[in-house]
Each structure stands twice: as C-alpha cells, then as structure tokens.
C-alpha cells in the first residue's frame, strides 16, 4: 500500500502487487463501490518475458522506496514438479528497489530508542513504514508503562478533530495489543464520522 511522500499524490493509496504467475510487478488502484472494495489493475511497473522473475513479497522501505523480493525461480509450486526437479533453484533470489527518479527519498524516522511520546507521534506519520514500525515497537514495550503514557496522550487529543480521531483509532490498536481495553474510547470512536 503506497503511503509515502516519496511517491506523488496520485499514487497514494495504490497497491503494488507481485505477479508471481505472470512475471510482473503490478500497480492496482483501489475503489469502494456497491459496498465492496475493488481492485483495478492500472499498469505493470515491471513487465518481463523472463519466466524466472517471480516478485513475491512487496514492502515500503524506511526511505519510501518500494522493495520487493524476486523469488527468481522457473518453478512456481510443488504440484508442477518434484521438489528434486533440476530446474528448482534453491540458491538464487533478488531484492529490488523501485524509486521515483524525479522525487527525493524520505529521511527515515529515527525510532531506535525513541521515547513513548515520540513513538505515539509516529502513529499518524504520512510514512507507512514509520507508522508500522512505531506501533510494532509500542507493542513490544512494557504494557503498564505504555498504557499509562498512552492514557495521558489520548486525554490531550480533541475528540471530533479529524487528525485526532485517527490518532485515537491508532491508540485503540495499541491498547488492544496490550490487552488493555478502553470501552469508552471504543464507544466514542464507533460514533465518529
């Protein structure tokens, strides 16, 4: 899911998918119609005729670039050929990085050793990587310490303000990770526009 300042506004919310079977790296647009999310294949970011090209894991990096693992194997699964088939490559694979040449990369957030308030501030970062990593670090910290500091942080947020509503939602996920339910916060968010 593209959510980084490295890519232009028109690509925000698009999804990059590895086409393992058709040997492409694809860009899809998401839309919500008739009560369901739909994906529309927009373009192939990387088309190739190389049948060993197998982009299988796509992530945003700390610099805002798209990184993906290329399995680089002629054989896709186990049902087409034996595990001992000579064409099954067990040693090769590649990591690729896709960047916009006309845009600067993002300065990665410094999260190592960050304070709890600094991690809370990253929960609504425009950079998906920073947001994900901040929450991951919060999930791993001491529950009593995190929930006490989070209670104080949430108390300073303004219910109804768009940015703060999103922050309160992110806080709810951290409470959930620490098995510390906050029913009043949940009820408030269920009524949020």
- Could you tell me how far the N terminus lies from the C terminus, measured between alpha carbons in angstroms? 24 Å
Main beta-sheet annotation: 3 strands, antiparallel
Mean pLDDT: 94
Low-confidence stretches: none
> What is the total tally of β strands?
6
**Helix percentage range:** 25-40%
Q: What is the strand arrangement across the widest sheet? A: 1-2-3
- Tell me the fraction of residues in β-strands, as a range: 15-25%
Q: Note the overall shape.
A: elongated
Rounded Rg: 21 Å
- In N-to-C order, the SSE pattern is EEEEEEHHHHH
SS field, number of helical segments:
5
Structural class: alpha+beta
Characterise the protein shown here.
The chain is an alpha+beta fold and 193 residues long. Strand 2 and strand 3 form a beta hairpin.
Helix and strand arrangement:
Layout: E1 15-19, E2 24-33, E3 36-47, E4 55-60, E5 66-70, E6 94-98, H1 116-121, H2 128-140, H3 143-155, H4 162-177, H5 183-190
Antiparallel strand pairs: 1-2, 2-3, 4-5, 5-6
Entry summary:
With 193 residues, this protein is of the alpha+beta class. The protein has helices at residues 116-121, 128-140, 143-155, 162-177, 183-190, and strands spanning 15-19, 24-33, 36-47, 55-60, 66-70, 94-98.
Name the descriptors.
193 residues, alpha+beta, three-stranded antiparallel β-sheet, 5 helices, elongated
């Amino acid at each position: 899911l593209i959510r980084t300042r490295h890519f232009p506004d028109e690509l925000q919310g698009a999804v990059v998918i590895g086409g393992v079977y058709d040997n492409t790296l694809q860009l899809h647009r998401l839309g919500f119609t008739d009560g369901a999310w739909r994906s529309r294949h927009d373009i192939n970011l990387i088309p190739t005729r190389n049948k060993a090209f197998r982009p299988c894991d796509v992530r945003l990096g700390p610099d805002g670039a798209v990184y993906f693992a290329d399995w680089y194997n002629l054989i896709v699964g186990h049902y087409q050929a034996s595990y001992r088939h000579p064409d099954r490559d067990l040693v090769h694979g590649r990591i690729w990085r896709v960047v916009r040449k006309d845009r600067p990369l993002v300065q990665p957030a410094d999260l190592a050793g960050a304070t709890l308030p600094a991690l809370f501030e990253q929960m609504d970062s425009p950079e998906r990587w920073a947001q994900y990593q901040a929450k991951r670090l919060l999930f791993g910290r001491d529950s009593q310490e995190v929930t006490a500091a989070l209670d104080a942080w949430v108390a300073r947020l303004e219910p109804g303000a768009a940015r703060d509503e999103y922050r309160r939602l992110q806080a709810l996920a951290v409470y959930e990770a620490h098995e510390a339910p906050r029913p009043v916060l949940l009820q408030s968010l269920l009524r949020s526009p």
